[in-house]
Design a protein that fits this description.
heterodimer, A: 293 residues, alpha/beta, Rossmann fold, 4-stranded antiparallel sheet, B: 399 residues, alpha+beta, 11-stranded mixed sheet, elongated
């Protein structure tokens, strides 16, 4: 409860946030994530006015919201400089930029694997800075799914067991984990590869297992770090189509990439250079692909 | 208003903890077998040592039970002035008059040189001496005749002898009816005894009857050692009066002893050896533990990406720590189980070869497993803590 309240929010609005957030805690069936109406929740930082307010509707907090987030490594190296970014529920966006532009740092901070040096980060309504390491872990288990360039599958275990790991830390029992892992694998088109080990799968299939592992917990946000970076064009295309499908089913998907072709295929593009956002096609909070295109 | 679902990390069930801990073992089998082997050797050594010493002691105890601990001997020694004490001829009769005494008998030293035959030079006596014995000696000592017959009322007057087991072997006598030479007389061997466990020095002796000894070998008829048995509860009382009874004139010169004490002392000396071997086993176990720790440290280094992934999937530091600690515990428990089986098998094998009843005390199995788990926990603690402290982003990007 501690992190939930945002001090500067007017009373009524503040009360509404946790209630709404609790409603968005994923229903425990994959594939049945309800489509979420993006709405601008009131924000505290500096008394910023609510953006695109939807009065009366149950307000869903943005899945990720960065306010003035900076990350400085000893050196000093400024990996991120005062980044403001809001990702609404159900959005599909690309974070794009050359290597060294701060993309990976963005991934770590949005995924709560790292904390900003200054600024605030909210994920699914929770203030990351106020959460203990253990609660941050629980936040990841419940709200965030990761897909990595190099899959990170466990070599000695079959696809179902690998996908099961995506639910292990959410406190789901083994039998249900298995059932949901099978469903998730079928959903990514691998229903015929359930008992295969990673060594028996192609690169594209491995990445789809990894996607199944990320989506099996029905996260609010799926963070994909160069998901096609290690794949040939055809496999990459299948993976991107899959991410589009997931997004259509309601999950917010954020693809981190240096590939402009991939970025341009997504409705919103946030371009980074030297740790700063240089262009955000959806800055106004709009999810319409036409905006800024 | 609905209260928000609290953000609390899920607790893994015991089954999930075990399954997750076993992943590292399932995927690296050779290494698991090798590092569990170290623990197995340590545990097997300790269990075999305890098992063997227990089996051997149990065997000794059952022998003592069979032989009885109620035999006392009174032996003529020297008085305070260095003079040899001579027991009176009626010493046995006097001992028999002590209330609780059930059997009393005696042997006497006979001065005779014993050879196989007259072609053996006199100075080569083969280390066999002659003693006079009464026919009831066999019953009193619980000794058994291996071949031939024992002394009886008839042959105790004749120039015949019964050989102890060692004496027969040293003289090369295998069958009753053969002759050996005592002084310059041939005597016929009528019987050979089985080893006498309680009084092993009678194994090296050629026994002749009292009357025959007096007649043929100038024996004076005075007993030199008196043997008696009484009920267990009265042994100490009899012991107190035995010296005065057999030698009223000079009780100080009589040495009273309980032959079973020697066997009991043997059991006690084995304990020292057991402790030494246990120490060696503990060293082996410790080395095994270091092996497990080493394996775990390497495992953590190799699996940084997996650790990073698990943190990304929502594992808390505690969950990562628990996973590696469980892996270490499983690894050493595997070794401990194998060691317990090996140790018990070794004990059974060796005990059966020795003709003992194999005994593996349950406490040694329990203790072995407890030691294993303690070692596993100690060996796994440092690597597990290291794994849990890895920064998730660094771990994910590790190569």
């Amino acid at each position: 409860m501690i992190a939930r309240r945002r001090s500067a929010v007017p009373d009524g609005a503040a009360d509404a946030i946790p209630a709404a957030a609790s409603d968005t805690i994923p229903a425990v069936t994959p594939g049945a994530v309800p489509g979420r109406v993006p709405s601008a929740a009131p924000h505290a930082a500096g008394g910023v006015a609510p953006r695109g307010a939807v009065a009366g509707a149950a307000s869903v907090p943005p899945v990720v919201e960065l306010r003035g987030a900076s990350k400085t490594h000893p050196g000093p190296v400024h990996a991120l400089r005062a980044v403001d970014l809001t990702v609404e529920a159900g959005e599909l966006l690309a974070i794009v930029g050359p290597s060294g532009s701060g993309k990976s740092t963005m991934l770590n901070i949005m995924g709560t694997l790292d904390r900003p040096t200054t600024g605030t980060v909210h994920v699914a309504g929770w203030d990351v800075g106020a959460l203990s390491d253990a609660r941050l872990s629980a936040l990841r288990a419940r709200h965030i799914g990761f897909v990595f360039q190099h899959f990170h599958l466990s070599a000695g275990r079959d696809a179902v067991d690998n996908v099961c790991d995506g639910l292990l830390y959410a406190g789901v029992g083994l039998r249900e984990r298995r059932a949901r892992a099978r469903t998730a694998l079928e959903r990514v088109g691998l229903g015929h590869r359930l008992g295969h080990r990673p060594t028996e799968l192609s690169g594209g299939e491995k990445q789809r297992v990894a996607i199944a592992r990320a989506l099996v917990g029905a996260p609010d946000l799926l963070l994909a770090d160069e998901p096609t970076g290690a794949l040939d064009t055809a496999s990459g295309k299948i993976v991107m189509e899959l991410l589009h499908e997931l997004n259509a089913a309601g999950t917010a998907v954020c693809v981190i990439t240096h590939d402009h072709d991939i970025a341009d295929s997504l409705p919103r593009r946030v371009r980074f250079r030297d740790g700063e956002v240089v262009d955000d096609s959806g800055r106004a909070g709009s999810r319409l692909p036409e905006v800024g295109a | 208003m609905k209260s928000p679902v609290p953000l609390r990390p899920a607790r893994l069930s015991a089954r999930d903890v075990l399954r997750t801990g076993a992943i590292g073992l399932r995927t690296r089998r050779t290494r698991v077998v090798l590092s569990a082997l170290g623990i197995a050797i340590g545990i097997a050594t300790m269990i075999a040592v305890v098992g063997l010493s227990t089996s051997s002691r149990a065997d000794l105890m059952s022998r003592l039970d069979r032989l009885g601990t109620n035999l006392l001997t009174a032996e003529a020694g020297r008085d305070p002035y260095g003079q040899e004490v001579t027991l009176p001829k009626n010493a046995v009769a006097m001992v028999q008059r002590i209330g609780p005494v059930q059997h009393a008998t005696a042997t006497g030293d006979v001065d005779a040189r014993i050879r196989r035959s007259d072609v053996v030079p006199e100075e080569r006596t083969a280390g066999v001496t002659a003693q006079a014995a009464r026919p009831d000696l066999l019953t009193a000592l619980g000794a058994k005749v291996s071949r031939g017959v024992w002394l009886n009322r008839a042959n105790e007057r004749l120039p015949v002898t019964v050989l102890g087991a060692v004496a027969a072997r040293r003289l090369g006598v295998t069958e009753p009816g053969e002759k050996i030479m005592m002084n310059d007389e041939y005597v016929v061997v009528v019987g050979i005894l089985e080893p006498i466990e309680l009084v092993p020095n009678l194994d090296r002796v050629a026994l002749v009857g009292f009357p025959a000894a007096e007649r043929y070998f100038a024996f004076d008829g005075h007993p030199s050692t008196v043997f008696e048995r009484s009920p267990d509860s009265t042994v100490e009382d009899v012991r107190a009066v035995l010296a005065r009874t057999v030698s009223p004139g000079n009780p100080v010169g009589v040495k009273v002893s309980r032959p079973s004490d020697a066997l009991a002392a043997k059991a006690a000396t084995d304990k020292g050896l057991t402790a030494l071997m246990l120490g060696l086993g503990a060293v082996a176990l410790l080395v095994g533990g270091v092996g497990v720790a080493n394996t775990m440290v390497v495992s953590v280094l190799e699996r940084r990406q997996e650790i990073g992934l698990r943190r990304a999937l929502g594992a808390t530091r505690g969950a990562v720590r628990l996973q590696f600690l469980t892996e270490s515990l499983l690894l050493s428990a595997l070794g401990g189980l194998a060691g317990a089986v090996l140790g018990a098998a070794a004990t059974h094998g060796f005990a059966l070869v020795q003709g003992w009843t194999p005994v593996v005390p349950p406490w040694s199995l329990g203790g072995g497993l407890a030691a294993t788990l303690a070692i596993g926990a100690l060996a796994g603690l440092y690597p597990a803590v290291r794994a849990s402290r890895l920064d998730p982003t660094t771990a994910l990007n590790a190569t």
